[in-house]
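BUG: 3D viewer hangs when loading the predicted structure for this chain

Environment: internal workstation, default settings.
Expected: structure renders.
Actual: progress bar stalls at 90%.

Input used:
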Amino acid sequence: MKLTKGQIEELYVFTRKHYVEHYDLQTELVDHLSNGIEEQWQYNPKLAFDDALQVEFKKFGVFGFMDVVEKRQKAMSNRYRKILYGFVKEWFQLPKLLTTIAIFILFFLVLHLKQASYVLMGLILILGAVNFYHQFKRRKKEKAQKLKKGKVFMLESMINDTGNGVSIMLFGNIFNVLQIMRFNFSELNNYWLALIAIAATLPCLTFYITAYVMPSKAQELLEETYPEYNLI
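Structure tokens produced before the viewer hung:
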């Protein structure tokens, strides 16, 4: 006996009810559950679908699908970090290396100013305002696409959400900057100013990559990870 399309759809609903949000993991679990149910039917063809489903679900233990979800999240997080590292590495190779150096020099020169803290604060406020405006527009577009498609892959969710998280973390530290606004960076020697400039450059690159570059490359990245992405 084989499962019907209706029963397969019931399995998708079942996984969603048990807190499996992402379509790629839902599909993996549905495939696992359907194979188990069909194997049960080979020995007991009269077994009801719901009963067979409960037998298969109990095999996942007390916590249900949680362990599977955590393992997939860990694996996909590793995948995300590798992708992020690849993009970051590009900014330390020509021709993007020139832009990285320019950002470093900009920070280094600003830190020499007596009013460096105020200049940095102004830059943070301007960049923060511009970023939140673009993030608002992008989130609105993503929400419309999600409603239309109805299926979200785990890597897709990470690409869309991580940029927001990084931006909140970066611009959310404005209060900390306020606390040191009176500090005169120009009194430090060039060695310390260079280290501070490097420390400022790296988060800026990470922010730009996660918030703008990776979302713009999302389609390509998802097609590489999920061969079935364009089929749904």
